[in-house]
Structure formats: C-alpha cells, structure tokens
Amino acid sequence: MEPLREILQQVVGYIYPNEVELHWGLLIVVYPYLTGLVAGAFILASLVRVFNVKEVEPTYRLSLLTALAYLIVAPLPLLAHLGRPERAFEIFLTPNLNSAMAMFGFVYAWYLMVVLLLEIWFDYRKDLVLWSQGEKGVRRWVHWLLTLGATELSPRALRFDQSASRLITIIGIPSAFLLHGYVGFIFGSVKANPWWSSVLMPIVFLFSAIVSGIALVLLLYLLSTLLRSKPVDMICLDKLATFLFYALVVDFSLEMLDFIHRLYEAEESIHILSQLVSSRLFLSLVVLQALLGTVLPLLLLGIVSPALRSRGVIALPDELRRLLYVGSAVLIQIGIFSTRWNVVIGGQLFSKSLRGLTVYKMQLMGLEGLFMSGFLLMLPLLLLLLLIAVLPPWPESPHASQEKTA
Amino acid sequence: MDERSKPVAPPAEEICAERRAFVRTCSLAAPLLLLGLRAAAVRAFAGADAPYDPKEHYYGMGVDIAKCIGCGRCVEACKTENDVLREPFYFRTWVERYVITPAGETVVDSPQGGIAGFSGTTSEKGILRTFFVPKLCNQCANPPCVQVCPVGATFLTEDGVVLVDRDYCIGCRYCIQACPYGARYLDPRTHTADKCTFCYHRVVKGLLPACVEVCPTGARVFGDLKQRSSPLNRFTRFNKVQVLKAHMNTEPKVYYSNLDGEVR
Amino acid sequence: MPQQLKRLVVLFAILAAGLLAARHFLRPATFGERGHYRSAAVTTVAAQPIHYAGRESCAACHTEIVATHRGARHQTVSCEVCHGPAAAHTESPTENRLPAPRERGYCPLCHGYDPSRPTGFPQIDPVAHNPLKACITCHKPHQPEPPHVPQECSACHGEIARMKAFSHHALLDCTRCHATPVRHKVTPRVVRPDKPRTREFCGGCHASDARGPKEIPRVDMETHGGRYLCWQCHYPHYPEGK
C-alpha cells in the first residue's frame, strides 16, 4: 500500500481513483521486447532461406537458436505478472475468441511447435544423425533422441529436408509477423487508451522487432566469432548492417508518421499526451528512443555501412566499422527497449479522464522488480549457450575477413 | 373514514337482491384475489417457488447530477455492502467534483473517492459552474472489458449486468486496461479483477443496490428496463439523458441527467 | 511417406491427444451453458452476504417512526443512511443495535454549505448556524422541518444574501424584485418566488428617464441589450461584480 500512497502524492491533475495503481509494469515491457527479438531473428534467418541472401548465411543457424532461446523465455514474464499464474492454462481451455490475448497461447504454441522447432529440426537433422553416429556418451544419446529416430540420409531424404525447411520458413514469415504483430494488436485495439489505440501499432511493433532482432544477431555473431578466435566475416557483417539500416529507415518512417499524424489531427487527447511526452516521457522517448536509439544509429549506419554506397559514404577500416556497428546495435537495443517502455508504461502514465498524469514506481525486489526483469533479460543468453552446446551453429565462414583499407 | 367506504344503498326490488348477492361475493373475492397476487409477487422476489429468471429483467441506472450533493454516502455504503478494501485505491463507485472557472479551466478532484464527502469548494479563480458527478461501472451493453478477457472470466449476464468470476480470473488486467471509465481494479486480496456488480446479490432478491438505497436525495435511480412501470423508465422519459464517452460505443447503461459537457 | 514425416506425425498425434484429454478433464463443468463463462459464477456472486436491509424492512417493527418519516422532509433519506447497515439488526434486533448519530458534526455532511451543492438544497454554515447546539435540539431527525418558519430570506439563501450585501443592490429587499408567496417559507420547492419578466421592471430605476438619484446608472432602454431581459446578461445579486 505504501508505494500506492507515494504515487498518490505525485499525481498531477486528476486521475480516476482506480488509476493510482499502474497495472502493466516492467514485466509487460520485457515481454514484447523478448518476442520482438524472436520475430526479428527469425526474419533474418528467413532472408537466407527464402530470399537467398547468401552473404548472411553464417548467421542462419545462430539466428534460429537465438529465436528459440528467446521464445522459450518469452512466456515467463507473462506468467510472473499474472495475478493467478496457476490458472494460466485456462487460456487453452476456454479461450475467448474475441480477445487478442487469448490468441497468445495458440499463436505461441503454433510458432514454437510448427515453425521454429520444426525449422531447426529439419535444418539440423543431417548433422544430428552424423553427430550421433560419431560421438560417445551423453552427447550421442542427446543427439540421437533429437533425431526422433528419423536417421535416413539418402539424397531423397536430404532433399525432403531442404524443401520442408524452405516451406516452413515461408509459413514462418507470416507466423513471425503474427507472433509479434498480435502483441501490437493487443495494445492497438484498446479504444479506451488514445496512446495505444492506433492502426499503426502492430506495424510499428513488428518493424521495431525486426530492427532489434537483426541488431541482436549482429552483436551475437560478432561476439561469438571473437570469442572463438575466428576471423570475422566482414561481408556478412556489412550485409547485416545494411539490412539493419533499411529496417531502421522503415521503422523511423513509421514512427514519424504516427507522430505527425497525431499532431496534425490534434484530437482531444493531444493536450494530455503532449504533457506526457514533455514531462514524464522526455528522457525515455525523445532522448533514448528517438535520438540515441533511432537517429544516431541511422546516421552511423548510413554513413559507415554499404547501404548507401558500396564502400560506405565514408570508407572506414574493418575494425573501426565493426566498432561502430556494435555501437549502433547496442544503441538500437536500448532504443527498442525504450520503445516498449514508452508504449506500455507511457500509456498508463496519463489518466483516461485526460486530465492528469501519474508516476510509475519501479520496485527493486519481487516478481515485478528490476532484478527479476534483469534476470529474465539475461536468461535467454544463458539458454542460448546451452543450445549452442547441444546444437553447434558454426559453419566455417566462406568469406574470410579481408583487410579493407580506405 | 371518507365517502368512498360507505356502502351504496341497494334498490328495493327482488332483482336487486341478486345484485346484492353478486356484489357481496365480489367484495369478498376481490381482496382474496389481491392477497393471492401479492403473495405471488412476494414469492417471486423471495424466489421461494418461482426461481429468479434473468431473462425477464434488464437492469440500468439513472443518475441526476442536479440532485447529487456529494455527501459520499453511496461510496461508503458500497464499500460496506461489498466488502471492498477501505484504502483509497479500490473503488466500485466514487464521486467527482467539477469546478469550472470563468476563464474556462476545469478542475476535477475526488478526495478518497468522496467517501467522507468534500471539504467546502473554494476556487481562487472564481466559480462559473460546479457540481458533483457520481461514477460507477456503466454495465455497458457492448462491454470492451468482456471483449478482451482472454478466458471468459468476465461476462455479461442475460439481465444486463457485467460480472467477474473471481474463481476463474487469471489476473492479467487486460479488462482494467480496456475499461474507458476506470471502473475496474485488481483486488489485492484475491489478485483478481473486481468492479461494481449493481449489487447483483441484492438485485436478484428484489432489493436496491446499496448506493441507490442510501442516496439521500434520490440522485441515483435504479430500474428494470424490461418493466414498463419502473423508476428508470420514468427517469429516461422525463429527463434528457446522456451517457459517458458515447463515442466509444460501449453502450453504457448508466444514464446521466443534467450532465455537463466537461465531464469525462 | 518420408521417414521424417512419419516420425513427426506420430509425435504430433500424441501431443494432440494429450492436449484434448487434458482439455476434456480440466474444462469447468458449467462453462458455456449461458455464454462464454461459468454459470456457477453467477450463483457465487448472487450468494454474497447482504449488509443493508433496505428501508422497506424497517416498517415491519418501527411503524410509527416510519409513518412520521414518510411524510416529512427527510422522506427520501433511507433509514440506513444515518443508522448504518441494518441487515444484522433485522436478524436479531436486540443483539445488533444500530447507532443513531446525535453529534453536531454529523448533519453538515449533507447540509453544510458547499457551492457545488445544487441551489435550493437546504444548506447552512455549520460554524455560524446556532453554534454549539446539537442539530437535533431544534430539528427532529425523522421530521426535520425547522421549528419555525425562517424570518429572513438569508436563512436559506445565505450565499446570495452575503453576495448581495457587498453589491450595489445591497439596500434592496429581496421582495422588491422577487414576488414571494408566504407559503414559500413552508414548502419552498413547491411554491416558488417570481423573477422580473420585463425589461421595464429594471427600467423603473435604470431607464434614462427614470426618476431617482443620479448615482443610479442609466441606459437607453430602446437600444441597450436589444431583445434580452436584463438578468440574462447582468447578475442582479452582484450587478457589476468581477
């Protein structure tokens, strides 16, 4: 009760009495961030399989494993947030088909079972069979189990693997859109909240997901390559940066469109929302999301990556270029996390009476606390380590890093 | 003793003897008939023989802003009747005070939901208009909260009341986000969503919701929209009524009379 | 069928069967009977305990008080507003006696003056109105009609009187402009005072050719204010106030 009493002291203007308690906190910020990374990493993987972008082939399996690691952790913040988590299974028993949230269980199950796990299985099957034949001990049994007993390696079987994988990826692209788009719809369809209610919400969510996913895989690829003391495939990295730039352009355009549209139409909510942005959300929206998270990476990537000019607008040596890619990717992660924060928390910082603002009191401990969310953000990386150990994703790169001087 | 109860002097002819007998029978039968009907009505309310049939009722509420004095008795009674936590963060109903200054600013407040009334209204900038507005769940006919509940834990009954299934709610709080009126909250004891139920447990027994029962000025009017002779029907006949946030198309069933345009 | 597909079909079939079985056993019994919800929930809500008995139940025992109360000024005020929830009292009256507020601080909850309260609702200044006496000294709660009819208009219309006292119209009696039948003091909302209905009324003092002290502001009644009655623009209780 004490945090609520403190919040009451800091209310500006008028809020409905029941609005003192902010209902969706940090955990609900973490969830779309995690599923966004899933969708983004998968879209990146699909670039290889469906659009035949050979340059980013080295990241293919890493993207899939990243998507899987984040997907496994994704339901945890939701479960932790529920008032009655022991009743969570009810979503499967009696889903209300009118509710976007009810679709979560099914979209998630579909994506996990039919898309991601199958995709990984078909791609790894041949290796799993070969590994289980050549290894000893626990690893042998784990890999054999994972083959599900389908150990045929005839050319026909391998061709089937290839076409199945391709088909699943094709199905997987709209599925990935659905997995993260529905989260955008959960917010975008709430007519009661003018900050959330927007046709653009699912699209903005999706493109910011793609941006964050590509940026994450870029970071993970670079980190894992350096940790394994292997040469960095700069062509792959450059291609990733290029796609990141394109995705960022679309994302930025969508956000600007939303912003301009709101200001132009100037509906009744514009007064309280302007107050919201200029007071409560200034740091997280203007500074972190817009300037540091979008504009700065756009400039960096635009100038340095081959997106606009084949050797970059300013040609830089590989190491420097890598550093700037890393910097941009990190800024993007911060920016996209801020985006989620601004949507989720921002939408609850103003009253539905349109007459007041409240505050969000973040706790340190407890399920809704900072430490729990920090743990949930780290957990997928730990899981990824495990997945990498069981299913090593490293093909040796076809393009060794070449020193490119300006 | 007035004129009506004095018996009419019967005519002297024999035919009138039959009429007398007839009148006597009727005057005996009529009260018995009425008693029988009344007994049936009482039974219907008490639910002893005829169980309550939700399909025969459709509840709504009327609020006359011109009568509300902001005493807060309704807020107090609601919390007592429904065992709502006393802390000022959980309200099934509350009262807001609006002060509109001559410069056109609107100041709204609701100290502890209005449960202890309001301290005398003062405004340094002067007062153009000022009034109280009781708020509660609007028991919408097109409820956005029911639409978004993922498991069917909140629902619209056949008699027009939106209820929460406390034993089924998973506490996801989506309904609280979806309500445009701020009528819902999460009960920290059960970790499930909660809100005004029109005192459903009273209404099915023929009683009034607690807030209507204790309103000293009759600003709150409760009624059955399916009954022609109901206080609410007369209320909507005599008053020009508005609903809150009509543009959201939630089809609220709380009808406000004398509602000011500044009310959100 | 390729070997992979065979294995997958078996796996998915087992999973699907398991899920369907779980769903069959776990789905609540009364779900879906009347809509997408558990019908048992309606019963649970309807079975909640009742605390307020409702004013109809008081008449069974307290017939005299109820009869008095029914014809008096507090007739819209339910018994339980002042006496609190009475359901327990109807169950066992002597064990669950109800409180009766007698202190002076109680009545101003409704009757203390507040500008947000509707005009015409009986309000007093809790500090100035017969100070230190309990309200019930003069006003019986079940028949609160004041012991005698108020002498001055300001007894009920205090705020207007206070405002007028500082205005240019301070020395005008209320009855100068408002024709007030005597019964207004007895049944104020049924018998109401009048408002001036013509421009000429105000013109009696304010027309250019009206007789009277020259300090009274004069206007040309032909042109000033066109079609409107004077009080449709000017507030008569504080005519040129800020």
Largest interface: B-C, 54 and 39 residues
Strand/helix succession of chain A: HEHHHHHHHHHHHHEH
How many angstroms separate the termini of chain A? Answer: 62 Å
Rg on CA atoms of chain A, Å: 23 Å
Kindly estimate the percentage of residues of chain B that lie in beta strands according to DSSP.
15-25%
- Roughly how many Å apart are the termini of chain B? 55 Å
> What is the CATH class of the domain at 56-141 and 196-257 in chain B?
Alpha Beta
> Quaternary arrangement of the chains shown?
heterotrimer
Biggest pleated sheet of chain B: 4 strands, mixed
Low-confidence stretches of chain A: 397-406
Query: How many individual β-strands of chain A?
Result: 2
Number of helices of chain A: 14
CATH topology of the domain at 56-141 and 196-257 in chain B: Alpha-Beta Plaits
Rounded mean pLDDT of chain A is 92
Instruction: Give me the secondary-structure category of chain B.
Output: alpha+beta
Number of separate strands of chain B? 11
User: What is the count of DSSP helices of chain B, taking H or I runs of 4+ residues?
Assistant: 7
Q: Could you give the order of the helices and strands of chain B?
A: HEHEEEHEEHEEHHEHEE
Categorize the overall geometry of chain A: globular
Structural class of chain A: mainly alpha
Mean pLDDT of chain B: 88
